[in-house]
Write a structure and sequence with these properties.
This protein has about 210 residues and is mostly helical. It has nine helices and two strands, in the order H-H-H-H-H-H-H-E-E-H-H. Helix content is about 65%, strand content about 0%. The longest helix is centred in the first third of the chain and has 22 residues.
Length: about 210
Amino acid sequence: MSDSARRPAFVTMLGLQNSMNTKVHSDWMGQGYAWYRAAWIECGELMDHYGYKWWKKQQPDLAQVQLEVVDIWHFGMSALFREGVDIDALADEILLELEGYEATDIGVLEATEILAEYCLRTKGFSVALFWDLMTAAELSFEDLYKQYVGKNVLNFFRQDHGYKEGGYIKIWQGREDNEHLVEILAQADVMSTQFADDVYKGLASRYPKD
């Protein structure tokens, strides 16, 4: 995908992330949240889904790994926001960092560790290192966009159903809400103008009723 095609997608995702963060706190940028910390902890969760325990039989769950990559992107984008820098400028900064990017051949675990180390060392976030992880996890930019929008809707859904207050139910019918989201995204039409609404309605139809 060309930069001219990617830019609107970055603007959309940054806008959605700002909206989500604002829903949690109206002055979220002024709170000094440690987004880098959330990102590297998500890296650890990703490794659990991929499997690193040589002392037991494990099979990588690529779908869940990719969802963790998307979770990292939520926190990574949040870490990029700065007072006085608008969303269009942030999108341009991302494109500049990715200019001339060439994929590496490192594996998922190695790419995850490198990104986590960067977050811990700098208390920041690297889009280029995230791209290495995304590539290693076999997640295309188009799929990142689709899954990001889906997960953003899930985050709104969680907030609408009491996540902040502690009343949200995360496990439905014996499975986490993330797993339900994977199925809903597989059936949804990403090209539809109602894509986000369709995902929200799909979650609502499965969520336990009072």
